[in-house]
Amino acid sequence: MVERREALAKMFSAKGVKVDTNRGEEYYDSLMKTMTKRLDELEKSPAASRASIQNLLESEGVTRRDFMKWASATCAALMLPSSFTPLIAQAAELMNRVPIIWLELQDCAGNSEAILRSDAPTIDELLLEIISLEFHETLMVAAGHQAEGQLANAMETFKGKYLCVVEGSIPMGAGKEWCTVGAKGETFEEHLRHVAKDAAALVAVGTCATFGGVPAASPNPTGAVGVQDVITGKPIINIPACPANPANITGTILHFVLTGQVPELDHLNRPKFDFGYRIHDNCERRAHFDAGEFVEEWGDKGAQNNFCLYKMGCKGPMTFNNCSIVRYNEGVNWPIGAGHGCIGCSEPQFWDKYAQERPMADTHFKAPTGGVEKSVDEFGLGLLTAAGIGIGIHAVSSIIAGKKEGDE
Amino acid sequence: MSYKKVERMTSFMRVNHWIVAICMVAAVITGLYIGHPYYQSFIADPAATKYVMAWNRWIHFMAAIIFDVSSIVVAYLYFFSRFEKAYKKLIPTLTNIKEFGAVLFNLLTLNRVKKFDSSHADSFNAVFFFIFHMMLVWMLLTGLQLYVHGLGSGLSAIGEWWPAMLHLATDWTVAVTGGTFMDVRISHHYTMYAILVWVMFHVYYQIWRTIFWSEGDIGIVVSGTKFVKE
Ligand code: HEM
Ligand code: SF4
Fold it and tell me: Which residues of B touch A354 (CB under 8 A)?
């Protein structure tokens, strides 16, 4: 009840999903000034990590030209005019000035994997390598008390300045004490609260950290929730998806480097420049949707002809994300391009309500009356049958026993 | 025994009734297609020349827009109609509750105790139609919420005010139905069945009344009049 009411209150204060791509010269002039000032300050501050993007790009064989191409693409992705491109490039070079503490909670580590495991890393992914990762639970060499010492050290040195990136959900239900971290055995909740306290902002990466994700799927045995359900009074940026797109993570961190502020967010605290549009609106199969050409079965003629995947359960029409534009792995491909429908992984409760290989109308949900799971149509037909029987009984008894006006 | 002719529906009300009925059938047929495309397009044609889903959605939205306008007008008439102000029969006053009970009791006892004035729209009728109008409003709100998702840019052919207004008017349906856009869709689909149940009963009740009250009730929606004994 309380949750519902809170959600309702939030909805009424929703900022809407309007994506404003042209805010006028005055706005951009002042933004340019803010950003230049901020970057100058960062430039003077000592590098928190010694890795530099130039060296890294050189060693990976990425040319300056490629780097500048990336900068202009990222500029467009952040919905800024092209005059900001040099600032983006400069910000990328200064990414090692912003300290980051990366927590790994209840999840599969898929977001870290998505960044680390690509065989030909994109510039986005390389950038995530040079950010000043002060502490990363999955990646660091240190363990036990040594690791905790590092964390305490980083939190002390960069107090109020670091970004706390969180991956994974937080178990809050019965048995939450089974999920502990570190030599002191802090529960995930304690750990998160502890690190979040002195953070400049929190970035929840992946759907588990944003909305609870797969661990929160019904019946949610661990009482898993997202970061925004635990932490209050701190700016929180949500970058859902399973895994979150490295391009969106970098974009958000870059935005923070550039402005020192969180980007404009939608009602679910997702950056509008990433989550402002539906998958469906920029999908390459959309013409087939409008034409009514659907894949009916895996591997059928429709599938061979790249027909729309709606009848195979594509949830693109209800999902806000930029996969259809940015794609994954250096724009190589994305789920719908590879022939599987969207499972709505960047929406809340996606595992229970979106991730089925059939349209919503054919999916088995808990019926409003409870009991066995039924599809909406099965429940509806049941309702119609019940009404039909009721009417039938009334009609027959009216004919047999009913009294007409006038018969006495 | 002689009968007196009484007017029950103005010509405007009758036109509205049939428009709503046609829109309803159109919305159900196209809505079910949208939910689960149940027939195939001609595979041989290229995608660019057939807009099967697009036409279904077009018809669905056109039916919806007509509903929109009709609902606003009906809501207005509830209070300001010069013919019969429906809200007067909805307020739970003692007379209205008694009348509601009497009509329902007569229906359940197979027309044995018809102790109410059937020359005007009774309270039972008013409540029954009010439920229908509420369900229609709910379809509108959930439908428009689903619709505004496609206007992510905040722009539309008729200006920015349209998506902005839709967000203001319908965003709360997400929270009420369960917190996700899919819940809105599920609710939109369930409510369709509730409306169909309503329609079944509505048609049945009109026929039943015509037969058992013997006052020509079915004619109300065609000629606008029925007959009551003098
Ligand atoms: C009695 C009236 C209506 C009925 C019976 C009806 C029925 C349906 C059904 C069954 C669906 C499919 C849901 C699913 O399983 O995915 C649907 C979808 C939809 N309906 Fe309605 N509907 C009605 C009125 C409206 C109204 C007034 C609107 C307002 C604009 C509307 C807008 C929509 C939209 C936007 C969709 C989703 C279509 C898409 O995204 O392509 N509907 N409707
Ligand atoms: S594949 Fe999915 S996102 Fe693409 S057009 Fe079809 S329903 Fe929309």
Answer: 180, 182
